[in-house]
Amino acid sequence: MTTSVARSRAEPNAFAQGLFRGLPPRYNRLAAVLSLGQDRRWRAEMVAHVAQASPARVLDVACGPGAVTRALAAATPAAIVGVDLSEAMLAEGATEIGRVGITERVALVLGRGEQLPFADGAFDGLTFTYLLRYVADPAATIAELARVVAPGGPIASLEFAVPPSPAAHAAWWAYTRVGLPVAGACLGGRAWWDVGRFLGPSISRHWATYPLEWTLDAWREAGIVAVSHRSMSLGGGVVIWGTRA
How far apart, in whole angstroms, are the C-alpha atoms of residue 131 and residue 32? Predict the structure, then answer.
C-alpha cells in the first residue's frame, strides 16, 4: 500500500484538501477534457432529477468551483447553498458565480458532507458530486445528507464508476492508469498528474468496497425512497436519485 493510499483511507478529508489544493483555477475546464467531455452530460442528468421538483432551496454538497451550483441556478428558481471543504475551491466558485451574475441566489459555505451545519429538513432538494470516495463512512454521510432534506424533497448524486463489461473495463483501466495521468500532467502540471495517478485506483477501491447495490441500500437505510440509478458512458459514471421519505 502506498503512502498516499494509506492517507486517503485514514484521513479522507485532509487528503482531499491536499489533493485538490492546486486545481481550482482550471478545474472545470480540465475536468471536461479529462472525462472526455462526459462530465457535463452526467451533471445535467443529476440536476434534472432535482429540478423537476421545482425546489425553493437546494443544497449542493461537494460543490467545488460551482459547476453543479450554476447548473442548478439555470435549471431552477431555487436559492442555492454550496458546501465544500476546500477554501480554494469555494473562492474559485465565488468568482464563477459572480461572473454569471447569480450571487444574489447563491451562498457558499465551508463545511463537510459528514457534518452539515444546517437544521433537519432545511432544504427542498440536494445534490452531491464525487463525494463518497473522500469520506470515512459513506453510509453515515448519506444519512447526514438526507437529514437536511425536507420530506418529499429530491436527492441526486453523481459518482465516477467502473464499467462492468470486459471490453469497456479494459479501455477504462488503460485510460485511468496511463492516459489520465499523462494528459493531466500535459494540461495542468504536477497537481493534475497527482490527481490522475490517484483517481483510477481510488474509483476501483471504492466500488470494490461499496458496490452499487450496497450504495443503493445505504440510500434506502437513510430514509430515501424510490431510489433509482442510471449508469452512463458505458458505466464510467453513475447518477443515483431518490426522494426523502
Answer: 18
